[in-house]
Inverse folding.
């Protein structure tokens, strides 16, 4: 064989004028400058649609030779029966956040910058030291314990589910939600690290026992573990976004941490947690749109509603119990600006709002 | 972030994982590998806090370059010969990318190492990045390159085309079957660690030589994520190696994964680089030379061979045979010729080869002209509309016997003497090589060497594209595929680069020719007929030349 010449002797290709620019000639299809294999939702296709739609093939659309590999049972690709829900057109779902490469990095990098700057300012001002001691205990134990739940959802619910749905639009939206949760969990735990380096006596690893062994978080952990144990991706996604998040996640984050942190001299935690909250509502917008489409489905809407109501029966009690378990934390702060029942009633209002939006009934007591 | 703070932060985030006590994550995917005794091996330290800003910075450079290319009228200097092959390449590659994202839960689900899970989850996000950034690059080509036809139908064409299918198996191989076979050995240990070098480093170099400096910007940016992925994969293979019971499966999977990657990636990228370029400087490396450096030296000798110290038998014979196919058996030339033979079922245009090309090929691959030169001259003649059909239907003039397709890699059996024929699952199938036969008949089965392998996947689907259209009129085939331009008759594919509408081929020139499936015909033969046919086929070549009528292997 002719072996490799040293790079230094390699000549350089000369630029050639080719005039291969759009519009240089007229011929059939010379102006066909849009992806023509799908119908955009609005008149013009968005970048999001162009980079997402039909990238994951579907035998019901253009895929003519079928899936080329199967699991041991011969089933391959993205089987629709990986969820009990049915759709007459899974492809109708488009992510309302239009997440793709650019939005993912822009948004998350902005959050990283926002958090880092806040931490840097707090450090410079020595403000970790002026936080209320009992509040620091809440940060040490409970806010840090919550990071486990966020991580578990990101890694073993969302990351797992983005393999499963029948379209690229659904899977990408779930993958982005996974990225959010994983970043948020790390933000919380790295904030914990920061505080433990600034404040003597702050036990940076106390959260592990709080999360793992009984107490306030036991029912939350059970709830999260049970969701990770669910094979049906849509069920896991529903149990997380529509049940766990309003009744547990937000109960603690929005209706407790965000209400009382600043009053206890802590302005860093609300920035970290607020970013997580913003992600949750962003990701919930996607979930709402998906479940809305499924309950409105002309063919399968009624069956889907029944399935979802069955899932409510299963998951609401678990999340109600998990939320209730957190109650003692409310009395661990001195400036009790909000009672547990107040927080809970806000969470329940949000949850029932979601049910109303989807036309779902949940008869039992919350 | 400083290295010290990354190390500390990395250690800290390990606190996030826990041992579940109520319910463990559901076993969505299964593997026959076992990790009970595996020592945990840790991948590169990766934290999202440093990851997101780093990637955003890389993105900004990519988007800046895109703006610059448009403002600087890059397409005035871009070679159409090159850009046409991008219609194929960029229709394929976003799917393997997104499949890699979807593959991550397979290994997260089966490999018990939370630290690796963190790395794999970040890889998932990378792969969403890669897929969408590549779709966006293609969109820019569609908007600014002279001929958008083929880009405009990209993802549909990928899903209904014989060549798209060859690429599709690559992505499907990541997400189906035994979780470790698919998402570790096939995806990371072989595809990412070995073949991304030619995909994301050799391809961009050739693009730049053809006036396209955007492809290098995007693909180098993609490649810069690869070292983290390779590190994830390496941690997992080391864990697997710490249990003796996995060795046999690893050896099986390395053989399958190596050979399939070679068959598929070398076919495609080899063709793009050797036949898609106008750069015929004699000192520019051939694909064979690049392969020797990046695959043989950098991967095989520096990565794979050292795994032998763990007692693993690596597929030396297959590495050597891949090289033999590339260097002595003309694999890439045969594939390029096949793509050009079937040009009318493509969604891109294929430029013929001229004297400058001939000279370069002869210089790089001595003996090339005697084998392939005449056929390319014939291709140039038959590319002009002149009362004849597409070259595929002019077998006598072209001296080309349309090939059987390999059931496994789905590249046709172009090295005729190597074809293997066997009845598998009640069907007579053809394979390009012994190893592709073994892959279907032996490896992808619920038992291997007498041990149960219940997690192993299956080869499925209508794997011979031609059988979908057996007995169809060729014009109807092309219409059905949708490869027709907006006047309703001119074809998207062309056997030349001339955009004069009068010179462009239409459905009319394809009418009256009947498409036939070699596999359907083979199965219709009596055993005696088949034996004769196969012997004659195997005596044919190179360059698809049929053997004399009485000849047999
Ligand atoms: Fe990638
Ligand atoms: Fe093959």
């Amino acid at each position: 064989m002719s072996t490799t010449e040293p790079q230094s002797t390699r000549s350089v290709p000369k630029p050639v004028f080719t005039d291969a620019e759009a519009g240089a000639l007229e011929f059939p299809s010379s102006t066909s400058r849009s992806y023509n294999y799908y119908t955009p939702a609005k008149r013009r296709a968005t970048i999001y649609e162009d980079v997402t739609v039909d990238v994951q093939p579907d035998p019901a659309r253009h895929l003519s030779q079928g899936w080329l590999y199967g699991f041991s049972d011969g089933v391959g690709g993205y089987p629709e029966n990986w969820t009990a829900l049915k759709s007459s057109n899974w492809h109708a779902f488009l992510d309302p956040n239009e997440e793709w490469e650019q939005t993912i990095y822009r948004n998350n990098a902005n959050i990283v910058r926002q958090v880092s700057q806040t931490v840097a300012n707090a450090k410079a001002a020595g403000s970790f030291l002026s936080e209320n001691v009992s509040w620091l205990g809440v940060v040490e134990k409970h806010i840090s314990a919550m990071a486990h739940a966020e991580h578990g959802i990101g890694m073993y619910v969302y990351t797992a589910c983005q393999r499963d749905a029948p379209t690229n639009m659904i899977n990408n939206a779930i993958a982005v939600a996974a990225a959010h949760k994983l970043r948020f969990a790390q933000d919380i735990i790295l904030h914990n690290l920061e505080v433990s380096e600034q404040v003597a006596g702050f036990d940076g690893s106390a959260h592990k026992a709080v999360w793992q062994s009984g107490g306030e978080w036991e029912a939350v952990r059970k709830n999260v573990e049970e969701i990770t144990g669910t094979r049906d991706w849509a069920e896991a996604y529903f149990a997380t976004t529509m049940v766990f998040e309003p009744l547990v996640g937000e109960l603690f984050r929005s209706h407790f941490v965000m209400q009382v942190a600043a009053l206890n001299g802590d302005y860093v935690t609300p920035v970290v947690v607020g970013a997580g909250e913003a992600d949750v509502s962003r990701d919930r917008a996607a979930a709402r749109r998906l479940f809305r489409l499924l309950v409105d489905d002309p063919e399968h809407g009624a069956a889907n509603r029944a399935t979802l109501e069955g899932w409510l029966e299963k998951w609401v009690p678990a999340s109600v119990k998990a939320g209730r378990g957190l109650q003692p934390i409310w009395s661990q702060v001195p400036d009790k600006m909000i009672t547990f029942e107040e927080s809970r009633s806000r969470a329940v209002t949000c949850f029932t709002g979601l049910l109303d939006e989807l036309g779902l009934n949940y008869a039992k007591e919350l | 972030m400083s290295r010290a703070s990354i190390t500390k932060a990395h250690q800290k985030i390990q606190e996030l994982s826990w041992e579940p006590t109520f319910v463990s994550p559901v076993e969505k995917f299964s593997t026959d590998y076992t990790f009970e005794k595996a020592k945990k091996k840790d991948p590169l330290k990766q934290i999202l806090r440093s990851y997101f800003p780093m990637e955003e910075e890389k993105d900004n450079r990519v988007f800046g370059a895109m703006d610059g290319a448009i403002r600087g009228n890059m397409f005035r200097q871009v070679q159409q010969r090159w850009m046409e092959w991008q219609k194929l390449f960029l229709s394929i590659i976003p799917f393997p990318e997104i499949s890699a994202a979807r593959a991550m839960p397979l290994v997260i689900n089966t490999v018990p190492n939370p630290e690796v899970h963190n790395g794999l989850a970040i890889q998932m996000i990378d792969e969403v990045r890669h897929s969408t950034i590549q779709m966006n690059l293609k969109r820019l080509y569609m908007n600014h390159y002279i001929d958008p036809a083929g880009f405009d139908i990209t993802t549909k064409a990928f899903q209904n085309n014989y060549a798209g299918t060859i690429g599709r198996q690559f992505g499907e191989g990541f997400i189906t079957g035994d979780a470790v076979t698919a998402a570790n050995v096939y995806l990371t240990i072989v595809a990412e660690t070995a073949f991304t070098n030619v995909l994301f480093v050799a391809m961009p170099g050739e693009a730049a030589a053809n006036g396209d400096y955007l492809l290098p910007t995007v693909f180098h940016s993609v490649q810069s994520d690869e070292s983290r992925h390779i590190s994830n994969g390496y941690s997992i293979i080391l864990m697997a190696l710490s249990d003796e019971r996995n060795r046999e499966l690893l050896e099986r999977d390395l053989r399958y994964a190596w050979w399939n990657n070679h068959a598929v990636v070398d076919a495609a990228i080899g063709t793009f680089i050797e036949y898609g370029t106008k750069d015929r400087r004699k000192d520019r490396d051939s694909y064979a030379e690049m392969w020797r450096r990046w695959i043989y030296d950098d991967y095989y000798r520096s990565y794979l061979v050292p795994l032998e110290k763990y007692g693993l038998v690596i597929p030396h014979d297959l590495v050597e045979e891949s090289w033999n196919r590339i260097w002595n058996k003309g694999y890439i030339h045969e594939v390029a010729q096949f793509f050009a033979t079937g040009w009318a079922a493509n969604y891109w245009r294929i430029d013929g080869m001229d004297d400058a090309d001939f000279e370069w090929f002869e210089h790089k691959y001595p003996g090339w002209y005697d084998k392939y030169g005449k056929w390319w001259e014939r291709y140039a003649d038959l590319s002009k509309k002149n009362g004849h059909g597409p070259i595929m239907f002019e077998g006598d003039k072209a001296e080309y016997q349309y090939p059987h397709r390999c059931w496994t890699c789905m590249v046709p059996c172009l090295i005729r003497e190597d074809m293997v024929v066997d009845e598998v699952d009640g069907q007579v199938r053809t394979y390009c090589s012994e190893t592709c036969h073994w892959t279907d008949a032996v490896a992808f089965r619920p038992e291997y060497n007498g041990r149960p392998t219940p997690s192993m996947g299956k080869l499925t689907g209508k794997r011979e594209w031609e059988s979908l259209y057996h007995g169809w009129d060729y014009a109807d085939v092309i219409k059905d595929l949708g490869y027709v331009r907006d006047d309703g008759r001119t074809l998207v594919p062309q056997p030349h680069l001339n955009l004069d509408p009068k010179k462009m081929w239409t459905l009319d020139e394809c009418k009256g020719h009947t498409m036939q499936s070699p596999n359907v015909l083979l199965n219709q033969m009596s055993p005696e007929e088949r034996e004769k046919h196969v012997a004659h086929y195997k005596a044919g070549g190179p360059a698809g030349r049929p053997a004399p009528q009485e000849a047999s292997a």
Observations:
- The mean pLDDT of chain B is 96.
- The first helix of chain B runs from residue 3 to 13.
- Chain B touches chain A through 125 residues (CB under 8 Å).
- Residues 193 and 514 of chain B are 43 Å apart (CA to CA).
